[in-house]
Structures are given as C-alpha cells and as structure tokens.
Amino acid sequence: MNHIYIEHNPFEITTLFRINDMEPSQSSSLVSYANKRLQLWVENIFFDLKEQFNGDASFAVEFTGLETDFNDISEAAEQASLSGMKIELQWNEVESAQSRLSKIKEMMVRVEKSPKFAEYLQNGGEEVKKNFEEALDNNFDVYVVATMSSGKSTFINALLGRDLLPAANEATTATIAQVFDDKTLGDVFIGERDGKVSIDSPKVDLDTLTAWNSDPETKKIELLGNIRAVEPNDNVRLVLTDTPGPNNSQDEEHERTTMGFVQDSQRNPLIIYVLNATQLATNDDQNLLRLVSEIMKKGGKQSKDRFLFVINKMDMFDPEKGESIERALGNVKKYLNANGIEDPNLYPVSARIAYLLRKHGELTRTERGDKRNIEELLLEEPSMEFPQYMTLSSSAKDLMERKSNSNRTLRNSGVPAVEAVIDEYINKYSFPTRLNRAHLALSKTIEQGLKEEELKSQLDLGQKELESLAIEIEQLKERREQGFSTEAYKENILRTGRDLPAAVQDKLTEMEQLISMRITEIGSDFVGDVTPQSAENRLKMAIRDVEFSFKKVVNEYEQAFQNSQEIIKKELHDEYMEHISSLFPESRGLELPIFKSLRDSISTISLNIGLQNDDIGTRKVVVGSKTVKDSKWYNPFSWGRTKEVKIYDDEEFVDLQELWKERVTVIRSEFMKLREVAVGRIKEDKDKLLSSYLYFIETEFESKFTSLLDDLSKNVADKEQREKAIEQAKHDLEQIGKLKEDLEHILAL
C-alpha cells in the first residue's frame, strides 16, 4: 500500500503532505491544498491520489490533526471505498481546539493588560483589531429557518426546555427573535422589545412573547436565558435566532435579512432548516431551498455542514398502519434533490415529545395524552428510533447519549442528536476559526513590536555610522516631502483610481447574467390562454418569485460592496508599500542592518483606511448577534400591482404571453435600476476610500513617520538616551520573543 501522511493545522491553515516519505511533486494537486482548509479539499483527496498513482488505489493514510478533521477524512475514505479503493486509516491525536482557545484567550488578556503590547496592538491597524475582537467573541449564531406549520417554535422550545415561543398557527413567527444563552438566570428569561425592557418587569413568558409577536410595531425581540440544550462552556455562548418564515413577516426587510443569513458565506453561521415531514411542497419553501442549494454548491464541505435539515413531526407516522420512516425520509430526500440539494444532512425528530419531556411544571390533559402516546410509539417501534437514520460521528453519538440523560424516549426523539451536531460544528469550525483570528492578530502585533525594538537595539553604532544614519534620516524626510506630499501624487491617485477593479466588474457582469436567466425562467411559465383566475394565480406566484429574486440580488450586491472595498483596499495597500519602497533607493551606503530595520519599521505603519460611520446610512439590520448600521441604498421592488385586476375585467381568457410581455419590461427595468444604483454605490465607496487613503497619508502616516524619525534622531544625538533605548529594546525583545514562543507552542500540532 502507498503510505500517505497528512498533517493539518486548522489554526494556521497549513497542511503537510508526505507520499511514501517524500514531498509531493510541484505538479501534484496536493501542493495547492497546502494553505487551504481541509474541508475545501477533503472530498477530492483520495481521487487525486488515485490519479497521481496512475490508477493505483491502495492507501495507508496516517493523519495528524483534530478529531473533527479526522472524521471528515474518514467520511471521504468511506465514499472512496464505494468506488473500489482500499484505504486504511490511522489517527494521531492532538490537543483539542477548545483547550487551545482557553490558553490563547488568557494570552490575549495579558497582551491587552500590558501597556507596551497594547501599544503594538493599537498600531497594528483595523484588521488586527477586528481579528483580535473576533477571537475573543464567544457568541455563536444558529439560525432556525422554516415555512409555516413545520413545528419550528416547538423545536426551539424543546431546545430551551420550556414553553416560551408561541407555537400556535395563528401566532407564527412574524419578527426576528434572538435568544442569548445565559446559564446564570436559572429558569427565568428576560427580554427586550426593540431595545426596550418592559416597564412592568424584564421577565418574559409565553403570554409576553405572544403579545410582542402579534404587534405589527415589533421589529426585533432579544431574550436572555438558559438554553438547556447547550452545556456550560466558557468559550462559547449560543445565540439562537428564530426567523420569520418566507412571506410571513411584519417587516419586508425581515425576509431579506433571513435570506442574508443563508447567503452569508463569510461567517458561515449554522442554519437549521425545519421541514414538516407530512407536508413538504410549498412555493415559499422552493424559493428558499433553491437559494440554499446555490450556497451549498460553493465553498466545499463546510457549505454543506452548515445546513442541518431537521425533519419534524416524525411522530405523525405509525408503522402499524404501514407508514414507513425510511420511505418518508426518501420522499424528503427526493424533494430536496428536486430543489438542487444533493446529499443533504437529514435529522428526523419529534420536537413535540422532546419539548414535553423537558417542560417544567404541570402538563395539560392534552399534553399528558400526547406524551403518553408518542412515548409508547418511540419505545415500542424499533423503526421510530430516529438517530439511526442520521450520519453521526462517534463523538457526536457519545454527546447525544450524555444529552439524553439515560432517557430512551428523549434519545429516540432525535433532538439530542441535533444538539450534539451543533456542538460538533462549533468544535469543528468556530473554535479553529477563532484561533486563526488570534494567530493573525497576535502575529501582526509581534511583528510590529519586533521591528520597532530591533530598530532601537541596533543603535549601538560607531560615530561614523551614527553620522551616516543622521544624514539618511534628513534625506528620508526630503524624499518624503517630494513623494507623498506632492499634488501630482494626489492627482495621479485620484485619476488612476476612477475605474472599478476588473474583479468587481466581472462579478457584476456575472450577477447581471444570472438575473437575466432567472427572469427568463420565471417567464417560461407564461404560455397559452387561461382563465382570469388562473392567470391571476400565476401572476401572484411570479410576483413572489421576482420579489424573492430581487431581495436575493440586493444581498448579493451588498456582498459585492464588501468585496469591492477589500479589493480596492488591497490595491491601495500595494500602492502604499510601493511608495514606501521608493523612499529607500538602492545604495551601498544603506546596507547596514539598521537601515533595513528602519525601512521595515516604516513599512509596518498600518494603512488604516475604511468607510467611516458618517459614510453609512441609518437603517438598522440584524446581522448575527449584533445590530449594525447599513445603508438603505435601494428602493423596494415595484411594478404597479394595481394592473393585476384591471386586466381581467372584461376578458373570459387571458393570453399569458401578452400578460408577461407587459410585465417583463418593467421587471428588467427595475433590476437595471438596481444595478445602476449598486454600481454608483461601489464607485462612491471607492471615491471615499481614495479620499480616506489620501487623508491617512497626510495625517496619520505623516504623524507616525515624523515621530519615528524624530525619536531616532534624538537617540542618535544623545548618547545617554541612546544607551537607555538600546537597553530597554533588548528587554522588550526578550518579552516579545517569549510571547512569540508561547503562541507557536499553543498553535503547534
């Protein structure tokens, strides 16, 4: 067998491959995987190896890394084995991500408390601060999405262990409700509506939530309480968000926000999509499922892992009546496949029995009857043990058993298994991602400190070298004045920066093509003559599809705004570094180590540019567990729906093709207007970033550049001050070296 060694570090995002104790050749596809997350390549690895060995498919794989990553290797090996490959696996266990996260959080607290390191952190720029904050942020978002009558509220109440969210059909979720896990509150939940606590009491119950949810003025509900499904953990706080179903929202923006959670491939939040096993197909469902399908096909295995399809109301099936669970799940799979979702993660559950088993207090007569009947069904019928139909790792199975508290009925309900999968997702993706953020932030901070202190430590020079350095400092100031400060430089930046980057143009063109295809697809249904009633129904469905597509495109444009800003920032950063290099011309006189350190120190002055709060509008949108400002840059879709009724007044039949012709021009016009506004927004953002860049050069860079050279000049001129600076720098370098060593030790496999 061919021996394959794989060592994957998800914290630094590096992978080491050895093929029969040798490095893979540069032409091997494995080389391209070296700096990518395992989940982006794991599904292809064994087929790549087979191709590399010219069809030889016998491998002994030794894997060093996290257990969750080894589980993915095992799953990929199992799939490859179905095609005839022979694969043996060995796992070398390493320290868990959660254990490392605890250690690195302690280190980050030390860094914040140290005046010197805090200064390095402050000078590291916005990206460093962002990574630092994200590494320390314990909140983990889980969004529960569903259409009507799926039992979504009952499922969430089962996770909470109490009757809190209104579950009756007439009180379905009409606004966004977030539940923040807080183990200190015991059985009490406290809440806010639109940022305000109730005058009577902060405590909330089912009656409070029912009233808030039915009030059309309610925009957002925030709750704080003990989510019993989650065990206490110092490194994570679950934020469970109950979202309005499609076409069931009091605020049109809520649906777009829900769609945004699904489309968010940057943070990759966990989405629990609850389906009613007894009633699958709805038009609203299909729109949302097609969107999920698009996202699942991008970004490798994580794009699939982040969607859990919870098949609720499985207790409605009775094997005694010949109703097969396997057949029911097969129908769900076919339904999802028909909407473009392949190999979905299915989790059949009875949320009703899990809720009744966990509910505190007296049960009603109806609840007692339901509990007795479902419990009998789940215990007597082997086919009603729902975890047997789920794909669960050994660690997830162990966790499921622990969450079931030795209660077979609760275990068979399938809900503890879903909770175990949530925990596994956090271990697999959230903890390593946060460690990677900490790695990026601390590495940049260490680099900043090293360059600052190395410059000072190298001041132990002879008189001739000190004089040469003093001359170079003055010349550097002159070159600075002749470079960044000239009007010609500013005009050149503004002139060359007017066009949109090619990558942004390509993305906008791709979006325009997809929009055109979608409009054509919707219009393909408008053929032939039908009754006015049928035409009206067809038009209502088209309205729904077009409006859904419009909101989807709005979210895609907002992602394009973010992406274009990053591309533009990258271009400006390259320009910035190129200009700094021009301050140091090639010269033999500048070959001393201190001149290199001086150049490096100036290069680490972080380019802090970005859109300020004043640049952004005032509409507030729920994103994750925070409320952030976002611009109301577009107008909602409008195509004059009053015409719908007028068309049919005196007509016995309606020509669908003619009907669509009248509408499609308006539809395309609305999407073109949206594109024009979006392109204008991107150009405005670019102009603001260019202005921000020039402002940075004139103010922040000028200040830091001058301060750095002035301090250096004082140390060159004053021997006593220079000696103190050298001594202090040596001490600081020792401390930085220790921090670097600790960081490497925590992150090393």
Shape: globular
CATH class of one domain: Alpha Beta
Question: How many helices?
Answer: 25
CA-atom Rg in angstroms: 30 Å
User: What CATH architecture of one domain do you see?
Assistant: 3-Layer(aba) Sandwich
CATH topology of one domain: Rossmann fold
Please bin the fraction of helical residues: 55-70%
Going across the major beta sheet, what is the strand order?
8-7-9-6-10-5-11-12-13
Structural class: alpha/beta
DSSP strand content: 5-15%
The pLDDT mean sits at: 85
Task: Give the CA-CA distance, first to last residue.
Answer: 26 Å
- List low-confidence stretches: 612-631, 640-651
What do we call the CATH homologous superfamily of one domain? P-loop containing nucleotide triphosphate hydrolases
